[in-house]
Amino acid sequence: GDINLNGMIFRGVPILYDIVKDQVIIQDFQRVYKINLPADKVEWFSVLGHQFIHIARGSADQVKTGFYDQLYKGKIALYAKREKKIIEKYSNIQISKVVVSQNVYYIKKDGIYHTIKSKSSLLAVLKTKKKEVQQYWKTNDIKFKKEPERAMIMARGQDAIGVEHL
Q1: What ranges make up the beta strands (E) of the chain?
Q2: 62/125 Cα distance (integer angstroms)
Q3: Residue 41 in 3-state DSSP?
Q4: How far apart, in whole angstroms, are the C-alpha atoms of residue 29 and residue 34?
Q5: Residue 92: what are its φ and ψ, rounded to 5°?
Q6: Long-range CB contacts (< 8 A, 24+ apart) of 33-42?
């Protein structure tokens, strides 16, 4: 993938993204050791067609500091915080580990991050384009409950809310 480290862009770098620890890992020049990059020095990285942006939490923001998958950008931007947690379960004398995945979505509008948990919370943020978004979903048979991420991405319609797809 590609990585922007302290404003310098490196292309074609072997990158690992530890989604559990929210860390970017690269190999040393001789590919012997793995190096955890300091998250505050990584502005963005791209891997497997996804661009992850480092966002630092502001005092009024609903987001926490970390890497976010940028789904689209423009006047309005959509981000997904992809998380996995390893939970240990104890039963009798056995310990088993279970991986739990979660995606939390945020729209950045007018410099403010809004958590999107439902169709209504999305439409509340896009209130000036609510009718256009609903019409686009209806025309293209997009169901928010079945595919929320696709619905959020497609909410931009044909640039109805002024965004550019990555």
Answers
A1: 2-5, 8-10, 15-18, 23-27, 34-36, 42-47, 50-55, 66-74, 76-91, 94-109, 112-116, 163-165
A2: 14
A3: helix
A4: 10
A5: 55, -110
A6: 37/3, 37/5, 39/65, 39/66, 39/67, 41/5, 41/6, 42/3, 42/4, 42/5, 42/67
Per residue in 47-87, pLDDT (tens digit) is 999 999 999 887 566 789 999 999 998 888 999 999 999 99
Q: What is the CA radius of gyration of the chain?
A: 18
3-state secondary structure (DSSP) of residue 81: strand
* Cα 33 from Cα 142, distance rounded (Å): 46
Task: Please state the pTM of the whole predicted model.
Answer: 0.85
- Counting every residue written for the chain, the total comes to 166
Q: Where are the alpha helices (DSSP H) in the chain?
A: 119-125, 130-139, 148-154
Residue in the structure block whose two tokens are 């955890």: 36
Which of 81, 2, 76 minimizes the C-alpha distance to 44?
2
